[in-house]
Amino acid sequence: MPVVCVNDSKTIYETFVKDGETYAGRAQLTEWLEVVKHGQNGIIFSEGEPWREHRRFALRVFRDFGFGKNLMQEKILDEFVYMMDSIKADKKAGIINHSLQDHIDLAVGSVINSLLFGFRCSSNKKEDFNAQKEIIGAAMKDSGRIEALIMQSGAHKFRFLPYFRKVYYDIQKNRDKTWAYFDEHVQKRKETMDLDSDADPVDYVEAFLRQQHQLNLKGEKHHFTDTQLYGILWDLWIAGQETTSHTTAWACQYLIKNLKCQAKVHEELSKFIGSDRLITITDKPNLHYINAVVAETQRCCNLVNTNVLHRTLKDVKIHGYDIPKHTVIISHITSVLYDERYFPDPYTFKPERFLDKNGIFSWPPELMPFGLGKRACLGESLARMELFLFIANLFNQFIFKENPEKPINEERHLCGTIAPQQYTCLVERRSYGY
């Protein structure tokens, strides 16, 4: 299908931000979405009133759960402590080559699972979580294959073609497994919760089911269906798990491969923290270099190299070009993140680019990893908090080094989000003299 790509920062702001409503439509990938997630449900791929209604509802629910506040920080720090203790236990057991990604996945997964389903990925649920992560990971990997990208233009006819048939049915199979996972936990919540209770809901599923129940009692027409719930869980699980987990893993990899940068991180932590206490959001204004590391990680890893396709909802003109209504269009953020006008030497990891001459961090408008405008990531505040807390606390507790006998493969792993290759590293405890 023809797609208009907006490739520079200024034009992206002029279109997707200043005239955001016009560009808030979604490409009509009807057949493809039927294969991936039973249709144009959820928040990411929907549009119009269902999208507005469920985006508003999700933002309200997450705000009530403490997005960007101390309550959410406590959840994240609890998971960091579990992760730290697990790494220490591995060291005590004599493990030399540590798989950081496994620890990170579990910590991030526990945060999103507690938000959606009300439980963390404790030892008795670890196997369940890993199985679901593997299914989602396989689905994302298949979705990033060239066959899948071609199928987006009309998926069902490709199931008859030998080259495409396996990918088509693999994606469908993983969809059904994911839906079964969601259905199992939703049905458990239905069996145990009181739909008429006045108590605050403890997770997103409970909040959604209560809203569904109230609308049904009133006899009102609504979009709070079980299919819509599963579509939203699919969106939030992927957006909340894959992106944060992979970005944190990239940050660790970049600092392992750039030990001078890691030394600067440790120097800043020694100066402003000076102990192995937990770092909190109140420390963030003092940790300029760590903020720069997080920003440079998001720029370099470019996690979503092809943004979700938008659709114009009326005729527009961009730099003299007439763009008809219903044109598929994207803000090509990749081109901005690697644009030498904004980020000189763009393929080199250089956190210093975000610091002024006094070492003060600032976030430039050209850095837009969460998207912009009406369709910006609704979990941005949670992701920012998780990235800072996980990365700062990991490097406050540990020194990570590459094992020369097991070098890290820096090749980018193309799937729905850009994941680092699986790697292991050496881990040392930092010493604070006591």
TrEMBL record:
One of its GO terms (molecular function) is oxidoreductase activity, acting on paired donors, with incorporation or reduction of molecular oxygen, reduced flavin or flavoprotein as one donor, and incorporation of one atom of oxygen. Its cofactor is heme. Keywords: Heme, Iron, Metal-binding, Monooxygenase, Oxidoreductase. Pfam families: p450 (PF00067). The keyword Metal-binding applies. Heme binds at residue 377. GO terms for biological process: organic acid metabolic process; xenobiotic metabolic process. It comes from the Eukaryota. The keyword Signal does not apply. One of its GO terms (cellular component) is cytoplasm. Transmembrane segments: none annotated. InterPro entries: Cyt_P450 (IPR001128), Cyt_P450_CS (IPR017972), Cyt_P450_E_grp-I (IPR002401), Cyt_P450_sf (IPR036396), Cytochrome_P450_fam2 (IPR050182). PANTHER family: CYTOCHROME P450 508A4-RELATED, CYTOCHROME P450 FAMILY. Belongs to the cytochrome P450 family. This is Cytochrome P450.
